[in-house]
Amino acid sequence: MKRSPLLPLALGLALVVLLALFGARMTGPALAEGLSHKAQAAIAEAGGTGITARFSTARGQPSRHPLLQGGRKLDDATRARVARAVAAIPGVGGVRWEDGSTLASRAAPAERPVHCENDVAALLHSRSIRFEEGSSRIDASSVGLLDEVASALRPCLGAIIAITGHTDSSGPEPGNLALSRERANAVLAALVGRGIPADGLRASGVGSTLPVAGLDPADPANRRIEFAVIESIPLKPTPVDTPGPR
Predict the structure, then answer these.
(1) Owning domain of residue 30
(2) Helix, strand, coil share (%) of the chain residues, nearest 5
(3) H or E stretch at 225
(4) Can you say how many angstroms the Cα of residue 184 is from the centroid of all Cα atoms in its chain?
(5) Would residue 165 count as lying in a domain?
(6) Count of domains in the chain?
């Protein structure tokens, strides 16, 4: 009886698969542990106080795709720097944050196209986004200016754009902080309504802590919204790293 040549081939293939699975089980934890040590060193060097990198899946299996946890109080520029530092480690796959807010890829170089930032600054040099007195409601007179700001930001879609609200020093600072955040969020919502993707915008408020250079902190001219490009390259997650909506 003639033996089929397919049987030895199938047995050999099965043996290769079993050896690969066995090897992965033996080397996976050691690889993840090594990447974890390198990641913590990179995080510390990037200024990521309170951030940890978890190299395991939700089921506890070793993974080269780290989940960054903590650091919620850090600014977006620091979080982006930390993500890039971890992504640059040889052997690391896609990097994701626990809240799904930022992804990094080793292929994403750190560039910063400031033309959008400069264009918006030029628009706001002699005009400002105005709000109703003591409110985060945008004044009707600023609708046209917001249209222009949205148009100026469009060439930088894919970048992360920071929107920062400022107030003067009149009134208690806790109230100033809250109002500055609310106004920055109102501008964010207005830009989203004009077609700027929400995942590329970050809103924050600093109250009266950063007055315009040369101005008295109580000067009403300190009431302003500022824009800054803090990340320039669209961060493309691999399929397994795609986060859910925030």
Answers:
(1) 13-108
(2) 45, 15, 40
(3) strand 224-231
(4) 17
(5) yes
(6) 2
Cα torsion through 215, 207, 228, 213, rounded to 10: 10
Dihedral-angle region of residue 197 (phi above 0 means left; psi in -120 to 50 means alpha; beta otherwise): beta
As a residue count, the chain comes to 246
98 & 121 share domain = no
* 219, 211 Cβ separation under 8 angstroms: yes
Entry pTM: 0.50
Which pair of tokens denotes residue 93? 């796959």
Instruction: Report the pLDDT value the prediction gives residue 69, as an integer from 0 to 100.
Output: 86
What is the tens place of the pLDDT at every residue in 17-26? 444 444 444 4
Q: What is the 3-state secondary structure (H, E, C) of 124-174?
A: CCCCCCCECCCCCCECHHHHHHHHHHHHHHHHHECEEEEEEEECCCCCCHH
Q: In this structure, are 191 and 223 located in the same domain?
A: yes
| 58/119 same-domain check | no
pLDDT digits (tens, 9 = 90+) for 137-152: 999 999 999 999 999 8
Whether 168 and 103 share a structural domain: no
Same domain, 96 and 145: no
Q: What is the C-alpha R_g of the chain? A: 24
pLDDT: which is higher, 187 or 104:
187
Residue 177 — pLDDT band, cuts 50, 70, 90? very high
